[in-house]
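Homework help board

Subject: predicted structure for assignment chain

Our instructor gave us this sequence and asked us to write out the predicted structure in token form, then describe one feature. I got the tokens but I'm not sure how to describe them. Can anyone check?
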Amino acid sequence: TVRRLLRGQGHGPRIQRVRRKNRPVKPRFFERANPNELWQTDIMTFMLKGQFRIYMIGFMDDHSRLIVGWGLYRFQTAANVQEVFRSAIEKHGLPKEVLSDNGRQYYSWRGRSQFTEMLTKLGIRHIRSRPYHPQTCGKIESFWRNLYQECLSTVPLATFEEAQGKIGEYVEFYNFKRPHQGINNLMPSDRFYRVDGQVKQIIEANTAAVEEQKVPAPEYRPPTYLVGNIGGRELRLVAKEAEVSLSSLAPEKVEV
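My token output:
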């Protein structure tokens, strides 16, 4: 009643506009131009049988999204991080920079951590993200989400060895068979090994050939192709209406 009488006399409530002092920060996207220019690293944890906690350490190439190294451990220690990193550089070479968060395995507030000293000796620059800002390492954070949704949450894991096997199968699938939307639906391995241009050409050629045939023949079989890069030289193998089999041969001269 009081509110109604005051509004009738022109004394309604005043609307105060509050100005936001801090505007939301626009997200900034970055991507290195070539493989092995920047690796992102992070640690993920999950429960095994709801009782035992497991830690997964991962390293991802920023340009191609390829998982260059990973390891499953019962403890998240600096020694385990260095072990995974050494294994990754043995397979894929040295990166120029490594991006990590401020976890105690990567960075020490007093002095220098073991991981930082290791990178300094190898001539690698260590970049740290802003505290409490996981978006900086968003690429590998996205991989953790996909790993949980497509593997860990669908397959019940009972033992540590079983978890290692299932995660290993998923990493192989992610690197070599799973299209990635962030890199134009290419596989991470295509971009890392610099065969993405060849793959695009083959896909466009096959798409054009299929579109020309309005009604595909019932016996139509899609061609099998194999692309690669050996010693800086392009390798391309396309088989139509044939089978391609690979076998392990002795290290002798083989002519193709």
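Reply (TA_rk): Your tokens look well-formed. For the description, you could write something like this. The chain has a mean pLDDT of 83. That's the kind of observation they're looking for.
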